[in-house]
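Below is just one:
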Amino acid sequence: MGKRSEVDPTTPRESSFLTAFAGKPGCGKSVLAAMVTSDIAESSGTPASDGARVAYFFFTTSMPGMSSLTGAARALLAQLFDHDPENETLRKTLSYAMTNTQGQQIAYSRLITDLLKLAVRCHPCVHIVIDGLDECSAKDEEKEKFLYDLYDAISETNAKLIIFSRPSVLSLTRFATKKFVPSLDIAAELSSDDIRKYCRSRLGNLVTENMLPVSTSGNIDGLVENMAIGANGMFLWARLMFVYLRSPTIAPPHIAPYVRLRHIQTVYYPESLDQMYCRILNLIGDSDTYQRGVARQVFMWLIFGKSDCLEALGLHDILATSYHISLNGSAPSSILPREPLAASFSAFDETIVLACSSLVERWNSPYGTQYYRFIHSSAVDFFMSRFHSPTVRGSNGLQPFTREFFFMCPGESEMELTTSCVQYLLVYIPRKPLSGSISQSPDPGIVTNTYPFLRYASLFWSTHLRGAKIQCDHDSVRNRAICMLHELDRFLNDNLLMLCWIEAVYLFSKDRAMNNSIFCIEAWVRWGEQKQIHTGIEGIDELTDDMRQLVCDLRGLEDGWAKTLLLGPENIWGDVTAFCKSRFWKKTDAVDVESLAPKAPMGWLQSQKPLTTVSASDSKASSLATLSVWPSRQVALIA
């Protein structure tokens, strides 16, 4: 599937044990990487394999923890250890490393490099496969260091390293040039035969299912050629084209087979993935109002939301909440009863796939949780490249049946997500301890089953607020801003709900997540103080002042009570608010705190301090009495 890049034959081949594959999005790099990994794994243990073992990592932004260098290094280490768990040297070294990091997760550092080098040398032959380096979230210089560390680890061994990436990764280009790494381009002409086989099979299925005219069976070869020309070596284009052709909304049923045939026959030239995404968005724009709205919201949550923290049932929860609020025109002032969501999840999943025309898929993680993600990272690139396009004019100023309806302004989208998170807290969370009792610690699993979106709303509304800046003149931004400010004002003035939010933050955070909330709110406050940006937006000055005070109160709470609340989040309803007071949360009646410091009697004729003070406690040491003698001011001056 590849062809070698131009290499000077006089250039020294220093890196014959390392190969880099480059190819444009959708050309089949990940499929090829998976095949290489599978072939090596299946052949391990056979006489021809020479004891070869494979360790691999596929970078992706659509899965939790799969886009960091730390995750890659730890995954490679774990696989190499699993291949030989009885190796005494490797086992002792890993045990020593974990002991000396005091059980903490090992960050990507020199320690990781040394462990990788040792692990590689403990095996007779290791094949390391890295895919999707372009989706790694690290900075370019950090990626280059990672490549050099892998290079050092396999140098002077029988190990081999294969890297798959888009050609746009500069760190890989520099590394390959300096180390004379042979680079192979995944060429379109070499993958065309495979694409033809794929298209022939899928077209045959469409004919069998009467989704193409019966007469099409005599012209399959011509249609295959049209598809191969359009794909131009990109498997993803072919896959998306069949997603498009199978859409039930492509045309009325009685003419749909002929419309599909016409779409195939009019592909005369090679197309880009962007053209295919535009074709699919036009199709979504022709669907009904509800499905268009669902598709836009799903795209927004997957692009701007913390998708690796938003589980599938949580997305179901917030979309159902947003739909209910849209029917009423605004968030209700009273708490709504909860309805079980698990029973309707199957129907919801079908709605997501249908509304988004299969651009979004559900993914089951190895940990048992489910998430939604785009079918390919190029879909995210497609939307990201259009955020600052002149065609983006906000949601209210566009016709919902045009594809520009789905190109969302970042600032406006962050406002909408902030509003959705806060509205969820206002509408569904009861103003009482999450466990139902002030003396009982809440169970995260039970709370999540009852309120699937609560974890996300509690931890990330402030994160979205940080990005909710009015920095553009779209016609709908003002309305979004006013709605967000209104809901935030309701949230800040609900003293009991504020306690629920604080309890949820400490319940769902493994560390001091409140620090992140403080940081994000403070960043938005600093932006809010730049009056010239938001001239004319009523209420933002007052809210900025309230947020500034909230930051001070939350910082005092975090500094004094974080350890207590991490151990028992329900304590926010008890002793904590008795000692840490704020106008934003209601003081508990469970504890009454009164200072034991001696108080001066009222009046200007008395001195400023007592002449003498005597204190004594009762036999049970439960009460303390203090007797102070306060002379007159004249006597105090003489004394």
Observations:
- Residues 1-15, 102-107, 389-398 have pLDDT under 50 and may be disordered.
- The chain has 24 helices and ten strands.
- The longest strand covers residues 52-58.
